Every structure is written in C-alpha cells, then in structure tokens.
From TrEMBL, chain A:
Domain annotation Histidine kinase: ranges: 244-458
InterPro entries xrefs: CusS-like_sensor, CztS_silS_copS, HAMP_dom, HATPase_C_sf, HATPase_dom, His_kinase_dom, HisK_dim/P_dom, HisK_dim/P_sf
Gene3D superfamilies (UniProt xref): 1.10.287.130, 6.10.340.10, Histidine kinase-like ATPase, C-terminal domain (3.30.565.10)
EC nos: 2.7.13.3
Transmembrane segments: 162-182
Topology of this chain in the membrane: Multi-pass membrane protein
PROSITE patterns on file: HAMP, HIS_KIN
This protein's name: Sensor protein
Annotated HAMP domain residues: 183-236
Species annotation: Pseudomonas putida (Arthrobacter siderocapsulatus)
One MF term in the entry's GO annotations: ATP binding
Main location per the UniProt record: membrane
CDD domains registered for this protein in UniProt: HAMP (cd06225), HisKA (cd00082)
Function summary: Member of a two-component regulatory system.
Automatic annotation (TrEMBL), chain B:
Pfam families for this protein: Response_reg, Trans_reg_C
The protein's name: DNA-binding response regulator
Domain of life per record: Bacteria
Metal-binding keyword on record: no
SUPFAM superfamilies cross-referenced by the UniProt entry: CheY-like
NCBIfam families in the record: cztR_silR_copR (TIGR01387)
Length: 462, 229
C-alpha cells in the first residue's frame, strides 16, 4: 500500500483533532444545559405543587372545593405551558386548567417527588404527581402538574442540528487549514529534496545550505552533507587513483618501448640484446609487483582480504623482521632497536607485511649511521607499535596524505629502489584498518614516527 | 621428467614449453582442457601444469577428473584470478600449488622442482659436498679447501638451501620465504646483501666461484665443472 503523503496525513490528523475537541465540547454543553433545564422544571413544578397542597389542605371538606377554585386558578393558570389536574379519590376530575390532558395511567399513581416525562406524538411533557389528604375524606386527592416542554426540546433539536452542521464545516475548514499549514511547514523538506535530487556525480561539491533550514531538519541536512563529502572524497580518490595507475604504468611502458626500439634500430652484438632483455625484465617485474599491490588494495577496499584471526605476539613478528632487515641496516651502518612487548589478534602474514613495509620505509629514509627504534606498548585495550626513525621532518600537510596511493612528498623524486611505487604505506594502512586498527604519522625535530594502534582483544587460548 | 602443460594462451604456452624444455624437462603442451585430460589420464606424467580458464574444460574440472581416476600426480595451477575462494577451491580439489599471473618464470621453475622433489624424499644427508666446499649439516660447519668458514645461522641456512638445490636458479622471493620465512613480497635488497656477505665468506678468497648471480632472476650455487641436471 502506498503511504499517504506527509501533507495529507498532517491535514487529516489536524482535522481529526479539531473535530474531536469540538464534539466533546458540544456534547458537554448540550448535556449540561439539558440537565439545567430539567432542574429548573423540577423546581418550578415542585413549588406549584407545594402551594396547591397548602391551598387544598386549607379546605375543611371536599364540598368547599368550589370556594377554593379561584385561588387555585390564580396559582396554576398563570402559566401557559402548565396544566393542572386534580382528581378525587373516586377518579372524578375536579379541576383541569386550562383543559384536560391525557396523562398516562402509570404517572397518575406515581406520587413520589420524582419528575417524570413522556411524549405523545409531537408534544413532550414533564410532570409531577402528589396526593393530598382532605379532612373528612377517606381517599386523598391526586394533584397532577404537567409542564409542556415541547419548545425546550425543539430548541435543543435545533441547537444540535446547527451544531452538527457547524461541526462539518469546521472539519472541512480545519482540513483545509491543516493542509495549508502542513504544506507550508514542509516546504523546507521539499527544498532539501530538490537540492538532493539535482545532485549527480559531477555536482558532488555542492552542499545543501544550512541557514534556511529549520532546526529539526538541520541534523538530517548535516548528515546528508557529510555523506556528500565522503562520497566526494571517495570519488576524487578513485579518479586520482585511476589517473595515477595510468601514469605509473605509462612510465615503465614508455621506457620499455623506447629502449626496445632503440636497441632494435640497428644490429648489435649479443651482449647488448642480453642487456636490453635484463633491463626489460626489471621493468616488467616492477609492473608486475605494482599490479599485485593494486589488486591487493582493490581487494582490501572491497573487504576481500579475509584474514584469519589468531592471537599474535607482536614482539615475535618485530624480532623476525629485524632479523631480516638487520643485514640491510648493518650494510648502511644503521642500528635497529626494539623494546616493549604486546599482543594483538589478526592475521600473522598480513601484520607481518604491514610492519615490513614500515620498517623498509624507515630504512629508506634513515641517514647512515643512525638508529631506528621500534617500540611495542601493550595498553589496556590496545597495543601500539611505534616505528621511529631520524630523517628529514615531513611537513604537516603531507602527514595525512602520506598513506594515499602513489603519494610522494616530493612528486619529482622517486625515492629508494625502483620497486618503490608509493603503495607500501597504503597497503600498510589497508591491513591495519582491516584489523580495526588506526595508523598515523608524526614528524617533529628530525624524527619521523609511524604509530599503529591495534585493538588487543584476548582470544580464549585454544 | 615429463610434464604436461595445459594453457590456451599461445604466447605464454609457447614460452613455458620452451623454458621448461631448456631446463631439461620433456614437455607436452595442450590448449584444450578436454584433450589435456585425455592425455593426463592415458600417459604417465610427473607433473601437470594447468591453467584455470581453458576452452573445452576448465582446469578445476580437469583436476577433479584426474583425481577421481586415482592418479596422484602433482598439479600446479596457473591462474589470473587472485581471489581467496579461488585458491581455496584449487587446493581443496587437490592442487599442490598455484601461481598467480603474472609470475616470474624462475619462480615457476623453482616451484616445479620443489613439487617434483616432494615425491622422492631426499635421504637425510648430514654431509654435503660441492667441489672443494664441504658442509656438515649436523655440526653446522662449513669448510672450503680445508679451511673452516664461520657463518651466522642465517648464512648457514642460505648456504644449505643453495646447496640442496644446487644448479637451480633460486628466485629472491623463494630465498626470503625459505630462509627468513617472509612469505610475501618484501624488500628484496635484503637478499642481495645476504648473498653478497655469503659470497664474501665462501667465494672471495678462492679462485673458483661457486655462487652465481642470474641477473634479474636469482642466485645459484654450482661448481663450474659439474653438469647441470
């Protein structure tokens, strides 16, 4: 089922709320006034009944009735709507003013002080019955007072009809008002939607302006803008990456082409050909390695480097790596020092590779005769590995981007061995992030340090 | 030694055949999976090299059928796809090793030799000798021309590896993996330094050089007069 539009929903609810309030108010008003009228009627009838009783008890015998009649008429005849009947014990009508009314039998005998009401066809009556004992009579007289309340009732009916009509009109008007309020109130949403709809890959730089947006929507707009920034960032990275791949592959391919063509341009001796093939082989190896690295990064971007989770002694890994790199370090008079200890969970081979890249990187930039320190610190919730080497201080604006693919602090320089394509640190970061860790770089006073923080959840030892 | 190569890409196939033939193997090459399977079942090969993607029948199916027929011949997979599931699948089906394209030929050769050697476990030697170089594996001692050579543990391990596989060009990646347990693409300059140091101890003072560099491919230990296998 299609959901109702927000505007429709809001106007409907508005209408329902108004109708409900009006109905409750109307019903209470109607009931209260009915009750009030009834009380008034009862009071009036009661008074008359008491007065007639006084007159009638003043008689010494029933024969005096005609003497009292004018008095009764004066009392009871004043009201147009009031009818009074006095019946003697044998059922004979003694008095009827203004004329006899057909009072149902059951009310004639109901002599308590209750108000009773009945209606015949169009008329509606309220009445009271009382019995008065007269001296010398064994059977009491029955006095019946009847009030014709047809007009009251007609008034209530009219009132209710108008109230109903008013209610319907109010409901319609409130629906219309609700619709106006809702569509006005929802206008900012529509504006936000319009901006969002107009977004495309090319306009990822646009942001939804925050100032005209009401407070309730600001959080949503902020999240949306944040999402746009992330998308834009990823998009820019992706396009840069493709451009970088093209560029990085173009260099070796053009080297290969030029070299091969030059060598083939005239006859040479066998050593020259051999030389060319060897140099081509180096170039091919470099390209092959770059493809491997890029595939690795692509896989890690898609969360495909499924690593096995094991408890790992980081110090062991570092010591193994130091043993490997010691030869290279000694060759350049660099000393390697390791301190501390710590554990992490993850894939041994991956972490090995990540740390190997850092160490290899550090060796590349450390001046001869200096020393690299590796510190493993076990903290409460994490393990931090710091690889620190002396070397040129890296400017702060480069620190964050150091882990970007193919990023070089100095674009004109290709540091170190030709196999260094600028992917090592990216790979290290991918691996660290696949382990839910963090990596960052600090560089001050001629010392550069790479920090890796890995969560150290202890696995139950199998 | 007779090898079967099933590879539909003509260039790689031809060069594989040439390279392996020149390395002393007898190579039959097929470009169709079905034909390759027929031969694999009817002839006696020492090793199968299978490409995954092939017309007729893919490498996995060939492997499955070969294993189903009860043949225990070692199988090496070549694949352009490097997905973990692919590797797991290959190994589950009973492949012995896999190589991801692009690969270095020296790497392939080293792996082929490893697989072929696996079947006939070398007698546990305690002494090895090459020209005037003698190595005592138990005492971990090397002597050349009667002169004791002091080696570090890793240098000894490197020498032992080169000696066990004398006459073979060992790629740097294989040396890094076997001696230092670096099972990923690591800084290969380290191997250069390690070999240079070993060479300084083993070769520098002697007329006859035993350690040879195969440029761009790797290192080999061999006496000049001994014939290659």
């Amino acid at each position: 089922m299609k959901r109702m539009s927000l505007t429709t929903r809001m106007s409907l609810m508005f209408m329902l709320a108004v109708t409900a309030v009006l109905t409750v108010a109307g019903l209470s008003f109607s009931n209260l006034s009915r009750h009030h009228f009834k009380m008034l009627d009862q009071q009036a009838l009661n008074e008359k009944l008491i007065s007639s009783q006084k007159i009638l008890t003043g008689m010494s015998s029933i024969n005096q009735f005609s003497e009292f009649k004018p008095e009764l008429e004066a009392l009871l005849g004043a009201h147009r709507d009031l009818t009074a009947l006095i019946i003697d014990g044998d059922g004979k009508l003694l008095f009827a003013d203004p004329g006899p009314v057909n009072v149902p039998e059951k009310f004639r005998t109901r002599i308590n002080k209750d108000l009773w009401e009945w209606s015949d066809q169009r008329q509606m009556y309220r009445g009271m019955t009382s019995q008065i004992s007269i001296v010398g009579q064994d059977k009491p007289l029955t006095v019946i007072l009847v009030d014709d309340v047809t007009q009251h009732m007609a008034f209530f009916e009219t009132l209710e009809r108008w109230f109903l009509i008013g209610l319907v009109i109010c409901a319609l008007v409130s629906a219309a008002l609700g619709w106006m309020v809702a569509s006005n109130g929802l206008r900012p949403i529509r504006q936000v939607t319009e901006v969002a709809t107009s977004m495309s890959a090319k306009s990822l730089k646009e942001r939804i302006p925050l100032t005209p947006v009401p407070k309730e929507l600001q959080q949503m707009v902020l999240s949306f803008n944040a999402m746009l920034s992330r998308l834009d960032d990823a998009f820019v990275r992706l396009s840069n990456f493709s451009a970088d791949i093209a560029h990085e592959l173009r260099t070796p391919v053009s080297n290969l082409m030029t070299h091969t063509e030059v060598v083939l341009s005239r006859k040479r001796n066998i050593e020259d050909y051999e030389d060319t093939l060897y140099s081509n082989l180096d170039e091919f190896k470099r390209m092959g390695r770059m493809i491997d690295d890029m595939l690795f990064l692509a896989k890690s971007d898609n969360g495909l480097i499924t690593h096995e989770i094991k408890s790992i002694n980081l110090l062991e890994i570092v010591e193994k790596l130091i043993e490997y790199y010691r030869l290279l370090a000694e060759d350049r008079g660099i000393s390697l020092a390791v301190s501390g200890k710590g554990c992490a969970t993850g894939d041994v081979l991956m972490l090995h590779r990540a740390l190997s890249n850092l160490l290899s990187n550090a060796l590349r930039y450390t001046p001869e005769g200096q020393s690299i320190t590796i510190d493993v610190q076990q903290k409460e919730l994490s393990t931090v590995i710091v690889v620190e080497n002396p070397g040129t201080t890296i400017a702060p604006q480069h620190l964050e981007r150091l882990f970007d693919r193919f990023y070089r602090v100095d674009p004109a320089r290709r540091e170190g061995s030709p196999s260094n394509a600028g992917l090592g640190l990216s790979i290290t970061r991918s691996i660290v992030e696949a382990h839910d860790g963090k990596i960052w770089c600090t560089s001050t006073d001629g010392k550069t340090a790479f920090h890796i923080e890995l969560p150290s959840i202890q696995l139950p030892t199998a | 030694m007779r090898l079967l190569v099933a590879e539909d890409e003509p260039k790689i196939g031809t060069y594989l055949q040439q390279g392996l033939t020149e390395a002393g193997f007898n190579v039959d090459r097929f470009t169709n999976g079905k034909v390759a399977l027929q031969y694999a079942l009817s002839e006696a090969y020492d090793l199968l090299i299978l490409d995954v993607m092939m017309p007729g029948m893919d490498g996995w199916e060939v492997l499955q059928k070969v294993r189903a027929s009860g043949k225990d011949v070692p199988v090496l997979f070549l694949t352009a796809r490097d997905r973990v599931e692919d590797r797991v699948k290959g190994l589950e089906l009973g492949a012995d090793d896999y190589l991801i394209k692009p690969f270095a030929f020296s790497e392939l050769l080293a792996r082929v030799r490893t697989l072929l050697r696996r079947g006939c476990s070398a007698p546990s030697q305690t002494h090895m000798k090459l020209a005037d170089l003698e190595v005592d594996l138990l005492k971990r001692r090397a002597i050349r021309s009667g002169k004791r050579i002091d080696l570090t543990a890793k240098e000894f391990a490197l020498l032992e590896l080169l000696l066990r596989r004398r006459g073979e060009v060992l790629p740097k990646s294989l040396i890094a993996s076997q001696v230092w347990d670096m099972n990923f693409d690591s800084d290969s300059n380290v191997i250069e330094v390690a070999v240079r140091r070993l060479r300084a101890k083993i070769d520098d003072d002697f007329e006859v050089k035993l350690i040879h560099t195969s440029r761009g491919m790797g290192y080999m230990l061999d006496a000049p007069d001994s014939e290659s296998e």
